[in-house]
Design a protein that fits this description.
The chain has about 100 residues and is mainly alpha-helical. It has a domain at about 70-95. It has helices at about 45-50, 55-65, 75-80, 85-95.
Length: about 100
């Protein structure tokens, strides 16, 4: 849209729920996505690549600690490079 549209008041007022329940603690124990009806068989190379992207809870916590103040840390850039981030997901969807 036009840059001017960003300066206009919102069309609808944002509703704030003050009595909403708190979010559940993450990660949810033993939570798994249901199998999809879409079946895609990965090649061995693709399977290995997908396996390399898996991260355990302990590893994710250590990565989080090691990559605080991310913009100044090389570790953060090295960890993020192979990951499918939101911006990279958008790129993939628009290929």
């Amino acid at each position: 849209g036009s840059p001017l549209s960003y300066q206009q008041p919102p069309k609808e007022k944002v509703k704030t729920l003050h009595n909403a329940p708190p979010p559940p603690p993450l990660p949810l124990q033993d939570y798994r996505l249901k199998p999809s009806e879409c079946m895609f068989v990965c090649s061995r190379k693709q399977q290995l690549h997908m396996k390399s992207l898996e991260v355990t809870l302990e590893l994710s916590r250590s990565i989080e600690c090691a990559t605080r103040e991310q913009s100044v840390r090389a570790d953060w850039h090295n960890v993020r490079r192979p990951q499918v981030t939101a911006s990279r997901f958008r790129e993939i969807c628009h290929v």
